[in-house]
Automatic annotation (TrEMBL):
Domain of life: Bacteria
Gene encoding the protein: cobC
Annotated signal peptide: none
Name of the protein this chain belongs to: Alpha-ribazole phosphatase
Matching SUPFAM superfamilies: Phosphoglycerate mutase-like
Enzyme Commission number(s) from the entry: 3.1.3.73
Entry-linked Pfam families: His_Phos_1
UniProt-listed SMART domains: PGAM (SM00855)
Coiled coil: none
Length: 178
């Protein structure tokens, strides 16, 4: 089964802002980037998207430009919940909170948020559910860097602590086989 993982395009957030599950918009212009993404996709597919606006705008564009048999938004595809750090500059997060998390982001929960292990568990739940069905068409997933890194770790058996070895650029399309 072919799966196309697509990270949303750049957001309107300034560089260095932690925005996780905050529903921020994408930066304009994005039309050319959307066209480039579309050129890398199959002509027919099943489509899933994070429900956050920065993914839905791209997913809607894809849905309107190729044959989509099914399109669903799934909360399990949302970026990591950064809790109290949402919309805070990484430089402004107190070091006594940030440093332990940076040393073990896999297991340490952000205050009022989640750990990477929790994100990975919901990502695996989504993948197991969607890939266990007899889907004959390719699957397109429009999501976030954290979700895509989690899927790539799952796919390659890369330890979660090494997830950032999976570089995922804005608007990047990554094709995998499962």
């Amino acid at each position: 089964m072919e799966i196309y993982l697509i990270r949303h395009t750049e957001t309107v957030c300034e560089k260095g802002i932690c925005y996780g599950q905050t529903d921020v918009n994408i930066a304009e212009p994005f039309e050319e980037v959307f066209k480039n993404i579309l050129s890398q996709l199959p002509s027919e597919a099943v489509l899933f998207s994070s429900p956050l606006k920065r993914c839905v705008l791209l997913a809607d564009y894809i849905k309107n430009n190729i044959k989509i048999d099914s399109y669903q938004k799934d909360r399990r595809l949302m970026e990591m919940n950064f809790g109290d750090w949402e919309m805070v500059s990484w430089n402004e997060i107190p070091q006594e909170q940030l440093n332990p998390w940076m040393e073990d982001f896999v297991n340490i929960k952000v205050s009022n948020g989640e750990s990477f292990t929790e994100l990975h568990e919901r990502t695996k739940s989504f993948l197991n559910e969607k890939t266990s069905k007899d889907v004959l068409q390719p699957i397109i997933i429009v999501a976030h860097a954290g979700i895509i890194r989690s899927i790539l770790c799952h796919q390659t058996s890369l330890p979660l602590k090494d997830a950032f070895q999976n570089n995922v650029d804005f608007g990047e399309v990554i094709r995998i086989e499962v």
